[in-house]
């Protein structure tokens, strides 16, 4: 070991582990995938490279921004993006959050592990503003539990 330390100038070895790359996908990249992106980024820290995208770009849902802000996660500068096949092909995991995205997700190389986590679409909630926000919170909290368990499992 002394010879190795001498050869590298007395510095300890730093092993650079490649980050695990995850993309969350839903139809419009406006609610669920954005919440999963924000949660995974917060929970996973620097150990993961997190992305989100949609089959279409519907714009960031202001209610998703609001309920994420309630738990200290700012997704207000996120953008609603369409799936980029090249980016998708470089992921370790592609996780769909709705049936539409699961069915229509572009083909990925065998190196990308595809998973499906079905969550209800909070953008379809009806009722008063408080009732709609409660649906967003319910979906946010369910996604948070799933993301936390998943990152602990793979990280």
Q: How far apart lie the N and C ends?
A: 29 Å
- List the total number of helices: 6
Specify the structural class. alpha/beta
How many E strands? 4
Give the quaternary arrangement of the chains.
Answer: single chain
Q: Average pLDDT across residues?
A: 89
- CATH fold type: Rossmann fold
How much of the residues is beta strand, in percent?
5-15%
What is the alpha-carbon Rg in Å?
18 Å
User: What's the CATH H-level homologous superfamily?
Assistant: Response regulator
Q: Report strand order across the widest sheet.
A: 2-1-3-4
Question: Could you name the ranges where pLDDT drops below 50 across 5 or more consecutive residues?
Answer: 1-15
Q: How are helices and strands ordered from N to C?
A: HEHEHHEHEH
| Sheet having the most strands | 4 strands, parallel
| Principal-axis shape | globular
Q: What number of domains?
A: 1
Level-1 CATH class name: Alpha Beta
By CATH, the architecture is named: 3-Layer(aba) Sandwich
Helical content band? 40-55%
Short account of what is shown:
By secondary structure, the protein is an alpha/beta fold. The protein has helices spanning 2-7, 32-44, 62-69, 85-89, 99-104, 129-154; strands at residues 20-26, 48-54, 93-96, 113-116. Strands 2-1-3-4 form a 4-stranded parallel sheet.
């Amino acid at each position: 070991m002394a010879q190795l330390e001498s050869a590298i100038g007395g510095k300890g070895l730093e092993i650079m582990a490649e980050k695990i790359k995850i993309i969350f996908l839903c139809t419009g990249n406006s609610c669920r995938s954005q919440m999963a992106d924000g949660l995974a980024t917060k929970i996973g820290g620097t150990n993961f490279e997190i992305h989100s995208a949609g089959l279409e770009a519907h714009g960031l849902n202001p209610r998703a921004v609001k309920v994420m802000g309630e738990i200290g996660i700012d997704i207000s500068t996120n953008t609603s993006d369409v799936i980029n096949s090249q980016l998708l092909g470089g992921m370790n995991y592609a996780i769909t959050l709705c049936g539409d995205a699961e069915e229509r997700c572009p083909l990925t190389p065998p190196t990308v592990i595809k998973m499906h986590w079905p969550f209800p679409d909070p953008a379809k909630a009806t009722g008063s503003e408080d009732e709609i926000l409660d649906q967003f919170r319910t979906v946010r909290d369910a996604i948070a539990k799933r993301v936390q368990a998943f990152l602990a499992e793979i990280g």
